[in-house]
Amino acid sequence: MTTPTTALDWNRSYRNGDHHTYWELSHPSAELVGFLAARGPGAGRTALDIGCGTGWDAIALAGAGYRATGIDLSEEALTLARARAAEEAPEGASPAFRQADVRDLPFPDGTFDVVVDRGCFHHLGGEDRAMYAGETARVLRPGGCLYLRGSRVDSFPFKPLTAQGLADEFVRFGFVVGPLLPFHLQTDAMSLPAYACVLTRTTTSDGANA
User: Fold this and answer.
1) Which of 96, 122, 180, 191 is deepest in the core (most CB within 10 A)?
2) Which pLDDT does position 12 carry in this prediction?
3) pLDDT at 161
4) InterPro entries per the record (predicted)?
5) Rounded CA separation 33/47 (Å)
6) How far apart are CA 176 and CA 201, in angstroms?
7) Residue 183: what pLDDT?
8) By CB neighbour count within 10 A (0-12 exposed, 13-18 middle, 19+ buried), where does 39 fall?
């Protein structure tokens, strides 16, 4: 890994319960619930939750009618997510969970209609961001979208979202980048100044519509 944290670091954090101190949210995120309400029923479309942690947002996607998959580097997080889904997910509509690296996603091209990310991208820098953009473009169907949420602040371990940075990384992979909307990323223990942004996958490269 070229990022400051490794899969082993994340596993240790979840094993020790550090996620409760920093990033855990014990319910689906309010901004995702609003996003899903605005989009209407998932109606069997496919959705991917990147950096799913203990699974709440993947469960919300399933509850909205999506065939949802959550991925995370940490098997410890996925163990918690599967246990939570067994208790909280709609009957017959539990999300799938699998260990994966966003820089090398284990899915065929055009698998998903929606990709959501609450706090994975803002841990990446440099070449890893380009790999992320390329992989999310690859697994999204044309017309699909990435709902990205990440830090406004440049302070370890966060690398901020900026309009220019998103344009530099995503437009070349066929995304149209929407406005960065400020809000606060809430956890059970803290609040982080953040941006939310919808990036839409077009049918051609360089952000041009077919």
Assistant:
1) 122
2) 83
3) 97
4) Methyltransf_25, SAM-dependent_MTases_sf
5) 14
6) 7
7) 97
8) middle
| pLDDT value at residue 150 | 97
Task: Quote the strand ranges of the chain, DSSP E.
Answer: 46-50, 67-72, 96-99, 112-118, 140-151, 175-177, 181-186, 191-201
Nearest to 42 by CA among 95, 102, 87, 82: 95
- On whether the CB atoms of residues 201 and 141 are closer than 8 A, the answer is yes
2, 24, 150, 177, 202 from 28: Cα distances, Å: 30, 10, 16, 25, 28
Which DSSP letter does residue 67 get? E
The two structure tokens encoding residue 33: 């619930």
DSSP state of 31: H
Q: Which CATH class is domain 28-201?
A: alpha beta
Low-confidence ranges of the chain (pLDDT < 70): 1-8, 20, 204-210
What is the residue type of 116?
V
Q: How far is CA 156 from CA 122, 124, 153, in A?
A: 10, 11, 9
Residue entry with tokens 């994966």: 100
